UniProtKB/TrEMBL annotation:
InterPro entries cross-referenced by the UniProt entry: Arylamine_N-AcTrfase (IPR001447), Arylamine_NAT_domain_sf (IPR053710), Papain-like_cys_pep_sf (IPR038765)
Family: Belongs to the arylamine N-acetyltransferase family.
Signal peptide interval: none
Keyword set, alphabetical order: Acyltransferase, Transferase
Any one GO MF annotation of this record: acetyltransferase activity
Pfam families linked: Acetyltransf_2 (PF00797)
Provenance organism: Basidiobolus meristosporus CBS 931.73
SUPFAM superfamilies: Cysteine proteinases
Segments passing through the bilayer: none
PANTHER family, A to Z: ARYLAMINE N-ACETYLTRANSFERASE 4-RELATED (PTHR11786:SF0), N-HYDROXYARYLAMINE O-ACETYLTRANSFERASE (PTHR11786)
Protein name: Cysteine proteinase
Length: 259
C-alpha cells in the first residue's frame, strides 16, 4: 500500500479493532513481563493472536507504518488523573503513541489506549473535535501548558474524549520524538512495579467495528457504545472470566495461561 492518509486510516481502524488492549502478559505468562522486542511483539500479536498494552500494540504498529514508508516517529505521553477538586494531574511518561506526517500535516496514531481511544488517526490541531462512527467516539486535542511547567516551557497537547456531557482528559504529550530506550524504562516500571494498575488487576479492552467497546477489569465485564452501557455483569469466578475472554475476545486460554 501507498503511505497515504486513506491507507493510514484503514490500517489504524483495522489494527485497533483486531488487537485487544490487554495486560495478560503480566498475569498469565511465566515471565510476568511484556516483551517489547520486535520479535516478541510479532510473536504475541500475529502468531499467538493476542493483543497487548501500549508499548506492544503501538510499538508493532509503528514498525509497520515505517516499513510501508510513512514519515512517523514515536512519542511518550503522561496519563491524566482527575483529582477530587476537579483539577487534572499528569503522571510519569508511561504511554506510547506515534505521530505520522502526511502532506505536511501531523496525525496522532494510538491503537493502544484501551477503552477511550479513537478509531482513526487524529489530526494534531487545537480543539477540532472528531466525531467517529456516528458518535461512538468523540475526541479532540487541546493545546496546553503542563500545570507544573516552569515558566510555561512545557507546551503540549491534551487528548480528551467526550463523555456524555463533558470533555474528559486522557493524556498529555509534548510533540517530541522518543526513543526505544525510553519505552524500555516505561515498560519495566509498568510490568514489575507493584504500584502499577496493570500489575494489580487484569484489564482487557476491545474496540469493535460497529463502534461498541467491551471490557474486562478484574471481575467486571462491560459492553458499551459511546457513553451508553449496554451490558454489565460481575464474573463470579475464574471459570467465568476464562469463558468471557473466549466469547468476547476470541481468546482460548491455554493451561499455562490459566495458571
Amino acid at each position: 500500500p501507498q503511505p497515504t492518509l486513506e491507507t493510514l486510516r484503514q490500517l489504524h481502524f483495522a489494527a485497533l479493532t483486531k488487537f485487544p488492549f490487554e495486560n495478560l502478559s503480566l498475569h498469565c505468562t511465566e515471565s510476568r513481563i511484556a516483551d517489547i522486542t520486535p520479535q516478541g511483539m510479532y510473536r504475541r500479536q500475529v502468531l499467538e493472536n493476542r493483543g497487548g498494552y501500549c508499548y506492544q500494540l503501538n510499538g508493532l504498529f509503528y514498525l509497520v507504518l515505517e516499513r510501508i514508508g510513512f514519515k512517523v516517529y514515536p512519542c511518550s505521553a503522561r496519563i491524566a488523573h482527575l483529582l477530587e477538586d476537579g483539577a487534572t494531574e499528569y503522571g510519569r511518561l508511561s504511554h506510547r503513541i506515534s505521530i505520522a506526517i502526511i502532506d505536511g500535516e501531523k496525525y496522532i496514531c494510538d491503537i493502544g489506549f484501551g477503552t477511550n481511544g479513537f478509531f482513526f488517526p487524529l489530526p494534531v490541531l487545537n480543539d477540532q473535535p472528531a466525531n467517529e462512527l456516528n458518535g461512538a467516539a468523540i475526541s479532540r486535542l487541546v493545546q496546553k501548558i503542563h500545570p507544573k511547567s516552569k515558566h510555561g516551557a512545557s507546551v503540549g497537547w491534551e487528548f480528551q474524549h467526550w463523555q456524555g456531557d463533558r470533555w474528559m482528559p486522557d493524556y498529555f504529550f509534548v510533540d517530541e520524538e522518543a526513543y526505544e530506550s525510553d519505552f524500555e524504562v516505561g515498560n519495566y516500571y509498568t510490568s514489575l512495579n507493584q504500584k502499577s494498575i496493570f500489575k494489580r488487576m487484569i484489564r482487557v479492552f476491545r474496540s469493535r467495528r460497529d463502534g461498541s467497546r467491551v471490557s474486562i477489569e478484574a471481575d467486571k465485564l462491560k459492553v458499551r457504545w459511546g457513553a451508553d452501557v449496554k451490558e454489565r455483569r460481575t464474573l463470579r469466578n475464574e471459570r467465568e472470566r476464562v469463558d468471557a475472554l473466549r466469547d468476547y475476545f476470541g481468546y482460548n486460554m491455554s493451561e499455562e495461561e490459566r495458571q
